[in-house]
Write a structure and sequence with these properties.
Elements (H helix, E strand, L loop, with lengths): L10 E4 L3 H12 L4 E4 L26 H17 L5 H5 L8 H13 L4 E4 L2 E9 L2 E9 L5 E5 L2 E4 L5 H5 L4 E2 L5 H4 L9 E2 L4 E2 L18 E4 L5 E2 L15 H8 L26 E6 L3 E6 L20 H24 L5 H7 L4 E2 L20 E2 L7 H4 L13 E5 L4 E2 L17 E2 L8 E4 L11 E2 L8 H7 L2 H21 L8 H10 L20
Parallel strand pairs: 1-2, 1-7, 2-3, 7-21
Antiparallel strand pairs: 4-5, 5-6, 8-16, 9-10, 11-14, 12-15, 13-14, 17-20, 18-19
Helix pairs in contact: 1-12, 2-4, 8-9, 12-13
C-alpha cells in the first residue's frame, strides 16, 4: 500500500474497524480505488484491541469476508501448533484469537489489493456537503498536523461513534427511545432481571440520552515470562470505586450463572470470588479475553463516558484515559487490596498484561470499547420487534436483505448503582438466553434519509435495544461487506446509493459468500484451512 498520491478516490472508508476493513476489501476486490482512513496507529478496532473472540451464536449464518478472516486465523494457529494441541483447540476454528494475530490477518487481507490505500493516525475533521450530497472530507495527519481534502463519489462511515455521518449533517439518535416510540417492551429506562428474564419495579420505559457503559476489553497473559505485573496503582486510583463488589460477594451476586454456557466468559474457579468482577475466556498462547462483568452492582463504569460522543479529540482522550485508569485500577484492586481474601488475590494474580501485545501502548489495548455511539436515522429503523419472537406476526422476508443478525440482545448498564438498586443496574439488558431470533438485516438501515453519497454499516439505523444485537464485529463485517459492494454498484451504475439495484447487489453478495437467508444447520458452515 503506497503513500497517498491523489486527493480523489472512488470509495473512501472512514474507520479501520472490522466493518470498515470489510467494506474496503469488498469495494477494492470489485475494482474500485479505495482509501481507508483510521485515527489510531493500528487497524482492526476491537478485534485487534482485546476482543479476542467472535461473538457468533449460529456460525452458519455469517459468511463472506468474515469467514475469510476466521479461516486465516485458523490457518495461523494450524501452522503454529499441532492440531491435537490445547492451543490449537482454543482458537475455536479461528473464532478466538490473540489481538496481534487479528491485526496481522487484517493487514495481510488489506495488503492483497494494490488499489486499496491505508492511512493510519489520520483523523476526520470535517465534511463538505453540497445539495444534500457528501462530496469531500477533510482529514488531518495527527503526527504532522498536515490537513488534506479527499474527494469521492461514495463515503462509508465505519466508525464506532458515527463521526462521519454527524459531520455530514445526517440525522442521528443518541440514547434510548421510549417504550412507546416503537412499541418495544424493553426500551427506555429499565430494570431487567437477567436471571428470571423479568422486568422489575422501577422500570418506566421513558426515553433519555443515556448510553451503555464503555470499558476496555483486556487481553491478559497467564504465562509468567510474558506477564507484566502492575507494580503500582494507576493514576487517580481510588479503591472506593470498587468496594461495592464486597456487597455483591456477600449477596451471592458473584456466583455462577443458572445456565453454564461455553464461550461467555464463565470460569467456574472464579465463581463466588471477587474475580467474578471479570469475565475470562482462555485464548491460545496462555492468553485470555477479559471482559468486565456488567452484572454486579459494584460495576463502576456506567456514566463514565458522559460527553464522549460530542467531545473534541482532546476531550475524548481525557475520557479514554479515565476509563483506562478505572480498568487498570480494578485489576490492581483485585490483585492487591488487603481486604480481598488471600485466595481471591491469588486467582487474580494469575492474570497480567501481556508483554508481547500492544507494545506501543504500554501493553494496554488502544481502542476504547464503544458499545454504542450515534445511530443513524435511516430509511428503515430496525427495532426490538424486528429481531425477536415478539415480532413473529411481522414478515420475516426483507426484499433488501444484505446480512443476517443472530446475536441476543445484550446491552451494558446505563447508570451507576442507585440507592434502591438491589438486583441489577439500570439499563442492563442481559437477554442472552431469551427472545432474539435470527433475522434479515435490510439494506435501508445503512442509508441516510437525506444525505446522498454516504452509507453507514456500523452506526446503523436501529433503536437502542436492537443495536445491542447488531453491534457484534462479525455482523458489522457482514454489513461492511454489503456497504462496500453497494459502493461499487453505485459507481458502476451511476445510481445513488439509495437506488442501487438490490437484486444485483444480493447476487454479488451471495456469489461472495454472504448469507442472506437464515436457516437451521446441523453442521457449522466453516471454511477449511487451505494450508
Amino acid at each position: 500500500m503506497n503513500p497517498i498520491e491523489s486527493s480523489r478516490f472512488e470509495v473512501v472508508v472512514i474507520g479501520g474497524t472490522p466493518g470498515g476493513i470489510a467494506a474496503a476489501i469488498a469495494a477494492a476486490r470489485l475494482g474500485r480505488q479505495v482509501l481507508l482512513v483510521e485515527s489510531h496507529r493500528r487497524i482492526g478496532g476491537m478485534s485487534a484491541s482485546g476482543l479476542g473472540k467472535s461473538d457468533v451464536e449460529k456460525r452458519h449464518l455469517i459468511g463472506g469476508i468474515f469467514q475469510d478472516f476466521t479461516s486465516r486465523i485458523k490457518c495461523h494457529y494450524k501452522e503454529q501448533f499441532a492440531q491435537a494441541s490445547e492451543d490449537y483447540q482454543l482458537c475455536q476454528d479461528g473464532y478466538y484469537f490473540e489481538p496481534s494475530v487479528a491485526e496481522k490477518v487484517f493487514s495481510d487481507m488489506l495488503g492483497e489489493y494494490p488499489n486499496l490505500e491505508l492511512l493510519t493516525h489520520h483523523r476526520l475533521t470535517s465534511a463538505r456537503v453540497e445539495t444534500d450530497t457528501l462530496r469531500a472530507v477533510k482529514i488531518i495527519d495527527i503526527d504532522s498536523g498536515i490537513a488534506r481534502e479527499i474527494n469521492a463519489p461514495v463515503f462509508i462511515d465505519a466508525t464506532y461513534e458515527g463521526d462521519l455521518l454527524a459531520a455530514a449533517g445526517a440525522e442521528f439518535r443518541v440514547g434510548r427511545e421510549s417504550r412507546d416510540q416503537f412499541g418495544e417492551p424493553h426500551a427506555g429506562k429499565i430494570y431487567f432481571d437477567y436471571q428470571s428474564a423479568e422486568i422489575l419495579p422501577g422500570t418506566t420505559g421513558a426515553g433519555d440520552q443515556r448510553i451503555p457503559a464503555y470499558t476496555y476489553r483486556l487481553c491478559l497473559s497467564t504465562r509468567a515470562e510474558n506477564s507484566r505485573q502492575l507494580e503500582s496503582p494507576p493514576e487517580e486510583y481510588d479503591r472506593n470505586h470498587y468496594t461495592g463488589y464486597f456487597g455483591d460477594l456477600a449477596a451471592g451476586r458473584l456466583a455462577g450463572p443458572k445456565n453454564l454456557k461455553p464461550g461467555r466468559g464463565y470460569e467456574p474457579s472464579h465463581f463466588n470470588t471477587l474475580v467474578r468482577a471479570l469475565s475470562v475466556t482462555p485464548l491460545p498462547n496462555d492468553k485470555t479475553d477479559v471482559n468486565i462483568n456488567p452484572r454486579p452492582l459494584g460495576f463502576p463504569f456506567a456514566e463514565e463516558n458522559a460527553g464522549y460522543l460530542e467531545g473534541s479529540a482532546e476531550e475524548r482522550e481525557v475520557i479514554c484515559r479515565r476509563i483506562r485508569n478505572l480498568t487498570l485500577g480494578l485489576l490492581y484492586f483485585l490483585q492487591n487490596d488487603p481486604e480481598i481474601p488471600e485466595e481471591h488475590r491469588k486467582i487474580a494474580n494469575r492474570y497480567h498484561l501481556p508483554k508481547d501485545e500492544f507494545t506501543d501502548t504500554d501493553n494496554f489495548p488502544f481502542q476504547l470499547y464503544v458499545r454504542e455511539g450515534r445511530r443513524l436515522v435511516g430509511e428503515y429503523t430496525l427495532t426490538e420487534c424486528d429481531i425477536t419472537t415478539l415480532g413473529e406476526g411481522k414478515t420475516d422476508e426483507r426484499y433488501d436483505a444484505v446480512a443476517i443478525g443472530e446475536f441476543p440482545i445484550d446491552s451494558f448498564p446505563c447508570r451507576k448503582r442507585q440507592p434502591e438498586d438491589s438486583v441489577v443496574l439500570e439499563g442492563y439488558l442481559g437477554m442472552l438466553d431469551s427472545i432474539t431470533r435470527p433475522y434479515q438485516i435490510p439494506y435501508r438501515i445503512m442509508i441516510p434519509q437525506r444525505i446522498d453519497g454516504l452509507i453507514v454499516p456500523v452506526a446503523a439505523s436501529t433503536t437502542h435495544v436492537a443495536f445491542s444485537s447488531i453491534r457484534m464485529e462479525p455482523t458489522w463485517m457482514a454489513l461492511g461487506q454489503a456497504a462496500g459492494t453497494a459502493a461499487h454498484l453505485s459507481w458502476a451504475t451511476g445510481e445513488k446509493l439509495r437506488n442501487v439495484p438490490i437484486a444485483r447487489m444480493q447476487k454479488q453478495l451471495t456469489d461472495d459468500g454472504q448469507i442472506l437467508k437464515h436457516f437451521e444447520s446441523q453442521t457449522e458452515n466453516l471454511t477449511e484451512c487451505s494450508i
